[in-house]
């Protein structure tokens, strides 16, 4: 049996930018190593998060994957094609959404823009009609089909951008900050759409975002990049587990909290009015044992166990690898 090749393969990818010091053509050149030999593969049908702090090299990698930029060395295959060598065949197989800039034409209506893309990609009329109707339903575009892109709200424009990226049924969708600047309902709509797309069409998705809720909602796997290198590549839950096993217990008392001892593995980190926050390592002291220990205290009113927020996990992860 032939094992299907991954949708995206990246091997030892390097990109070095050469910039002139001081901007003058006579100045000395300086090298910026944006990608320092990254490797990863995304299997067909997976949603992979691609994250990292500012300047990590994400945009550079995405530009190479989209065929916009040539690497200095290394190998990339997207659906068995080398993006910068087979540009025309490559763009027919991928869809790209850049949250920060539009791919549509400002002066055309959404419908006209989709028709232009039909001609550019050579999508047959039947398939175009089916895709247009499906995307208009799923992304709620009917009311804005005749409106020019210039007049759209950011949320409407992002929905139109996603439709434009998918009108030709690409196998791979690259999303670069697809929820940036959107309000909460629009973010939820984009996430729900991407989830359905993967389930119904089996599209492979590479998702770059600084919104960790996008990652938590969508990515089965997270590739973390920093200083042009892969820092981690694992299921999101594994990243959470290796980064931080810490849990938090908030304890409210009816009056002023008493002073109390804690078992090993737990420590008091905050006292505020009637509440005390305790952080603990569940490998040393399981939550039920800690709760039982506190249950004996007088004046106990309420207990809440929580995990650190996802932003905190990622911030600590970046900080641990900052050198
Ligand atoms: N055209 C360019 N010329 C020179 N240096 C560049 C160029 N584009 C990016 N760089 C540099 O390469 C490094 C990686 O940048 P890149 O834009 O890929 O990072 P990023 O992870 O996308 O960051 P962000 O989250 O801020 O968008 C940075 O040091 C950046 O200054």
UniProtKB/TrEMBL annotation:
Q: InterPro entries in the record, alphabetically?
A: AAA+_ATPase, ABC_transporter-like_ATP-bd, ABC_transporter-like_CS, ABC_transporter_ATP-binding, P-loop_NTPase
A Pfam family found in this protein is ABC_tran
Q: Name one GO molecular function term.
A: ATP hydrolysis activity
Known PROSITE patterns for this protein?
ABC_TRANSPORTER_1, ABC_TRANSPORTER_2
The record's listing under Gene3D superfamilies reads: P-loop containing nucleotide triphosphate hydrolases (3.40.50.300)
Q: Which UniProt keywords apply?
A: ATP-binding, Nucleotide-binding, Transport
Kindly give the SMART domains that the UniProt entry links to this protein.
Answer: AAA (SM00382)
Give the ABC transporter domain ranges: 8-252
Q: Which SUPFAM superfamilies match?
A: P-loop containing nucleoside triphosphate hydrolases
| Protein origin, superkingdom | Bacteria
- Does Transport show up as a keyword for this record? yes
Q: What's the name of the protein?
A: ABC transporter ATP-binding protein
Originating species: Brytella acorum
């Amino acid at each position: 049996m032939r094992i299907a090749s991954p949708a995206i393969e990246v091997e030892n990818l390097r990109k070095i930018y050469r910039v002139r010091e001081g901007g003058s053509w006579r100045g000395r050149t300086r090298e910026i190593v944006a990608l320092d030999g990254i490797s990863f593969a995304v299997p067909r049908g997976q949603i992979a998060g691609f994250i990292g702090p500012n300047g990590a090299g994400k945009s550079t990698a995405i530009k190479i994957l989209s065929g916009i930029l040539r690497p200095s060395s290394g190998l990339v295959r997207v659906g068995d094609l080398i993006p910068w060598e087979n540009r025309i065949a490559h763009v027919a197989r991928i869809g790209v959404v850049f949250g920060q800039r539009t791919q549509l034409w400002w002066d055309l209506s959404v419908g006209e823009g989709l028709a232009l893309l039909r001609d550019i990609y050579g999508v047959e009329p039947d398939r175009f009609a089916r895709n247009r109707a499906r995307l208009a339903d799923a992304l709620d575009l009917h009311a804005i089909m005749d409106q020019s892109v210039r007049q759209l709200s950011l949320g409407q424009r992002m929905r139109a951008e996603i439709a434009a990226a998918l009108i030709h049924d690409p196998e791979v969708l690259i999303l670069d900050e697809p929820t940036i600047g959107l309000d909460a309902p629009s973010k939820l709509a984009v996430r729900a759409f991407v989830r359905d797309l993967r389930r119904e069409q089996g599209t492979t998705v590479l998702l770059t975002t600084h919104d960790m809720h996008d990652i938590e909602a969508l990515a089965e796997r997270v590739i973390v990049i920093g200083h042009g290198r892969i820092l981690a590549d694992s299921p999101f839950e594994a990243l959470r587990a290796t980064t931080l096993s810490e849990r938090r217990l908030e304890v409210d008392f009816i009056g002023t909290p008493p002073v109390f001892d804690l078992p090993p593995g737990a420590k008091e980190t905050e006292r505020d009015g009637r509440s005390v926050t305790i952080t603990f390592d569940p490998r040393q002291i399981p939550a039920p044992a800690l709760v039982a220990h506190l249950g004996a205290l007088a004046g106990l009113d309420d207990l809440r166990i929580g995990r650190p927020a996802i932003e905190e996990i990622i911030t600590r992860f970046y900080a641990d690898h900052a050198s």
